[in-house]
């Protein structure tokens, strides 16, 4: 069913979806005062990266392998974001015994080399385990995993499609 849509349409849908989700996150932050934790910020980065790659793919609209490369990169970004969201969901379902709000993302990135900062981000903190807002009983992290799964599904439909043949005018 999804293969009825062109590669450009699928990339455009991914971009619109990702940027819409970023918009919802910003609305929650500004209007509902739901402050993002370090893991939430990393998920936002993943949505921005997937959306940006999708915009590039839609604008470039390469035939054959080029489209599959864009889609594979989007898939890797979506898998990364889904992994972060799944880890945060785990922390929310099974919060740490000792809640300790660690440093924010900006402090960690400015104070530590990336090799030390990333493990600290993925450990999560008290604020990463906290559920500030829900929709249909799902936390923002749960909804992000669903969002990344949608992005992954659309991107994989491009990766797995048959290569388009270049049409030569005679």
TrEMBL record:
Disulfide bonds: 37-40
UniProt xrefs under InterPro entries: DiS_bond_form_DsbB/BdbC, Disulphide_bond_form_DsbB, DsbB, DsbB-like_sf
GO BP term, example: protein folding
GO terms assigned for molecular function: electron transfer activity; protein-disulfide reductase activity
Residue ranges, Cytoplasmic side: 1-10, 63-68, 162-170
Entry keywords, A to Z: Cell inner membrane, Cell membrane, Chaperone, Disulfide bond, Electron transport, Membrane, Oxidoreductase, Redox-active center, Transmembrane, Transmembrane helix, Transport
Segments traversing the membrane: 12-31, 43-62, 69-86, 140-160
Periplasmic side: 28-45
Subcellular location: Cell inner membrane; Cell membrane
Primary location group: membrane
DNA damage listed as a keyword: no
Xref: SUPFAM superfamilies: DsbB-like
Membrane topology (UniProt): Multi-pass membrane protein
One Gene Ontology cellular component: plasma membrane
Recorded superkingdom: Bacteria
Record's function text: Required for disulfide bond formation in some periplasmic proteins. Acts by oxidizing the DsbA protein.
Family recorded in the similarity comment: Belongs to the DsbB family.
Protein name, per record: Disulfide bond formation protein B
Organism of provenance: Niveibacterium umoris
Gene: dsbB
């Amino acid at each position: 069913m999804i293969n009825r849509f062109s590669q450009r349409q699928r990339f455009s849908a991914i971009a619109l979806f990702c940027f819409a989700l970023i918009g919802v996150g910003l609305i929650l932050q500004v209007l509902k005062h739901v402050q993002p934790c370090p893991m939430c910020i990393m998920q936002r980065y993943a949505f921005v990266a997937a959306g940006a790659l999708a915009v590039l793919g839609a604008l470039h609209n390469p035939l054959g392998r080029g489209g599959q490369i864009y889609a594979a990169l989007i898939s890797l970004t979506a898998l990364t974001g889904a992994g972060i969201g799944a880890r945060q969901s785990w922390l929310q379902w099974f919060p740490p015994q000792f809640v300790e709000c660690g440093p924010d993302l900006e402090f960690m990135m400015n104070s530590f080399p990336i090799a030390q900062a990333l493990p600290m981000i993925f450990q999560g903190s008290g604020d990463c385990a906290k559920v500030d807002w829900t929709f249909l009983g799902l936390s923002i992290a749960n909804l992000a995993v669903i969002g990344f799964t949608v992005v992954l599904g659309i991107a994989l439909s491009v990766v797995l499609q048959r290569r388009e043949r270049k049409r030569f005018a005679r």
